[in-house]
């Protein structure tokens, strides 16, 4: 017979291939600090309820400390036959402190234990994600401040639309990542729920104080329903859904950085430390970091879909399928944190070619709307003005000119309302400076947004 902790009813040894197939130790071993911390709190809960003595609790807690150090120092032997991190720790504890270790699993099941471990892990990681996002938001705000006056062609349909401040564009990403932070903060409330004591599914006959366990582990609430406690993985789905949206934002920013650093745009230069060369083309400097971030987005979407599909149609309560939740969760948590960190490092070092951006904003009729607005100011209806300027654009294209390169007399052919003040009206700084509607790109508005953002990120947690 093998020496499994659950094999009382078994008369046959588990097949090696089944041990290998069912084992999750390669994945869930990283939960060990949480498993041990949870077990320590459980010991104290058992002692408080008089289920084990204070001395027994002390022995168990000390033994768990020994196991924790062994794992941390790499002195621990992992074995497929022991399935998962919970079994490994309990088995090693038994060797370390003897028979009293057999009391540790009283009033507990691996079903509530694993739910506890993942929640503790994800609580830490969500806090880390939030703090990374705050740093990223601050980085974007700082960058917007540094480049406050830089003009960028604004695009719709990736066609020249209207000039905007580059700082305004950066602050758009600030808004996206701020929403991501808010989503993770909101999810934290539902991650931070203590499931231990639900036991296998029905609760326990032992008089444990679950709220005491929650206090020991600094949980803000305790799960209300034991069946939900062991079968709920919504909190993982929420993290993955929020991570997916955040990766959408990263993929968009990455795409722009990749485009902007191409020789066609030449708006920015990625710092050498964040680019790589080609093994064949000596001239190449490739935007690998944003490309990889863009590429990793698919993996995070896949992880969300993985866990959604895993949970779909599962009957209550615990099902072994749920063991498969960890790999996608861990992978996405690591990917997202890596992506945020690398962006925090890369962004402030990007060289902004403001002359090139301004030059690009000066061609392609980005002043057409303003020219129409000019006519509206002189009394024409907007629709009429739109048609009038449209004709002017047509002629300008034929002549290979910009609108501001047409003479006043040429402009007068389209409307007698055009006058000498038209050229200053469509000067770049005028066009941007007039967009003072709330949330618009006028410098004073962007500075206001930056000041607001400074305050928001000062208070953000
Ligand atoms: N390794 C399992 C998991 O990750 C732990 C829970 C096992 N429970 C059970 N009844 N076999 O889900």
Task: List its salient traits.
461 residues; mainly alpha; Fumarase C, Chain B, domain 1; Fumarase C, Chain A, domain 2; Ribonucleotide Reductase Protein R1, domain 1; 3 domains; two-stranded parallel ribbon; binds arginine
Describe the structure concisely.
By secondary structure, the chain is mainly α. It has 19 helices and six strands.
Written description of the protein model:
This protein folds into 3 domains: 14-106, Fumarase/aspartase (N-terminal domain) (Fumarase C, Chain B, domain 1, Orthogonal Bundle); 111-197 and 225-359, Fumarase/aspartase (Central domain) (Fumarase C, Chain A, domain 2); 368-425, Ribonucleotide Reductase Protein R1, domain 1 (Orthogonal Bundle). It is 60% helix and 5% strand. The protein contains 19 helices and 6 strands. It has a two-stranded antiparallel ribbon. A two-stranded parallel sheet has the order 3-4. A two-stranded antiparallel sheet has the order 5-6. Strand 1 (151-156) and strand 2 form a beta hairpin. Helix 6 (110-146) runs antiparallel to helix 19, helix 7 (166-191) packs antiparallel against helix 10 (234-260) and helix 14 crosses helix 15. The radius of gyration is 31 Å and the shape is elongated. The model has no long low-confidence stretch (mean pLDDT 96). The protein binds arginine. The site of arginine has 10 residues, from helix 6.
């Amino acid at each position: 017979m093998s020496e499994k902790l659950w094999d009382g009813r078994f008369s046959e040894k588990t097949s090696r291939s089944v041990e290998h197939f069912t084992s999750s130790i390669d994945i869930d071993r990283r939960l060990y600090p949480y498993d041990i911390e949870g077990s320590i709190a459980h010991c104290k809960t058992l002692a408080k309820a008089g289920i084990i003595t204070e001395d027994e609790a002390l022995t168990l807690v000390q033994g768990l400390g020994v196991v924790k150090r062994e794992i941390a120092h790499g002195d621990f032997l992992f074995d497929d036959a022991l399935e998962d991190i919970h079994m490994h720790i309990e088995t090693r504890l038994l060797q370390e402190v003897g028979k009293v270790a057999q009391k540790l699993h009283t009033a507990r099941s691996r079903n509530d234990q694993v739910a506890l471990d993942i929640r503790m892990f994800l609580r830490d990681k969500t806090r880390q994600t939030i703090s990374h996002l705050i740093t990223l938001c601050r980085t974007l705000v700082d960058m917007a401040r540094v480049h406050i006056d830089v003009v960028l062609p604004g695009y719709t349909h990736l066609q020249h639309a209207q000039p905007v401040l580059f700082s305004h564009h950066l602050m758009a990403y600030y808004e996206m990542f701020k929403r991501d932070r808010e989503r993770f903060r909101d999810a934290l409330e539902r991650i931070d729920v203590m499931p231990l004591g639900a036991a296998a599914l029905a609760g326990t006959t032992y008089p444990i104080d679950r709220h005491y366990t929650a206090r020991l582990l600094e949980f803000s609430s305790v799960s209300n329903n034991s069946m939900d406690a062991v079968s709920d993985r919504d909190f993982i789905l929420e993290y993955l859904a929020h991570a997916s949206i955040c990766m959408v934002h990263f993929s968009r920013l990455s795409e722009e950085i990749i485009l902007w650093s191409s020789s066609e745009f030449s708006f920015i230069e990625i710092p050498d430390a964040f680019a790589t060369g080609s093994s064949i083309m000596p001239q190449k400097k490739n935007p690998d970091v944003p490309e990889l971030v863009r590429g990793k987005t698919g993996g995070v979407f896949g992880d969300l879909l993985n866990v959604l599909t895993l949970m779909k149609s599962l009957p209550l309560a615990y099902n072994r399928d749920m063991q498969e939740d960890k790999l996608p969760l861990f992978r996405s948590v690591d990917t997202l944190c890596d992506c945020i960190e690398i962006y925090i490092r890369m962004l402030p070092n990007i060289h902004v070619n403001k002359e090139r951006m301004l030059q690009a904003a000066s061609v392609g009729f980005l002043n057409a709307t303003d020219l129409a607005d000019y006519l509206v100011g002189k009394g024409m209806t907007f629709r009429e003005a739109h048609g009038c300027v449209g004709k002017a654009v047509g002629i300008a294209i034929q002549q290979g000119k910009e609108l501001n390169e047409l003479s006043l007399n040429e402009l007068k052919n389209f409307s007698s309302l055009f006058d000498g003040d038209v050229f200053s009206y469509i000067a770049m700084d005028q066009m941007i400076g007039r967009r003072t509607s709330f949330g618009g790109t006028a410098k004073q508005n962007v500075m206001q947004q930056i000041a607001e953002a400074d305050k928001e990120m000062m208070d953000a947690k």
